[in-house]
Amino acid sequence: MKRQHGFGMTELMAVAAIVAVLAAVGMPAMQDFIANQRLKSTSSDLFTSILRARSEAIKRNKEVSITPSSNWNTGWSIPSPNAGEPALASFTTRSSITVAGPATGVTFNAAGRVKGDADLQFSLTSSTGKASCIRIDLGGRPNVQPKSC
After folding, report:
1. Half-sphere exposure of 48 (CA within 13 A, CB side)
2. Which of 39, 113, 117, 144 is most solvent-facing, going by the fewest CB within 10 Å?
């Protein structure tokens, strides 16, 4: 009698059942991981945009703003301080991330300081409830904290 090579149907079904159980257990953890990474990525994008707007204000010796698209949840842009020029940068907010910030945006003067008389903050929240807070002091320096504002 010849010896057969390979797997039988029973072995294949057992492996499929084990893979299905592991996938069912790991899927919620993976979804939380993805939501948390989206929050970190959006926080990083906004933080970098704030730094860029401040840097452009100092470099150009002009006021430069970072403004919401229609609202912060849809994205933001850094319009050029020179009329007729395209925006310096624009970003779209990732889905499942809620962003709240100053309604009119943030304006930096030529010295890199925030135009206004109070510290500003942005609150970012993921669909899992994790939060991040970006505060901008009057000196124009942003600070990210991994908690709600």
Report:
1. 10
2. 117
Domains located in the chain, CATH noted: 9-145 (3.55.40.10)
Is it the case that residue 142 has pLDDT exceeding 90? yes
For residue 1, what pLDDT is reported?
61
Region 30-51: mean pLDDT is 92
Report pTM: 0.81
Average pLDDT rounded to a whole number, residues 100-106: 93
CA distances from residue 130 to 39, 50, 99, 117, 124 in whole angstroms, order as listed: 8, 22, 12, 30, 8
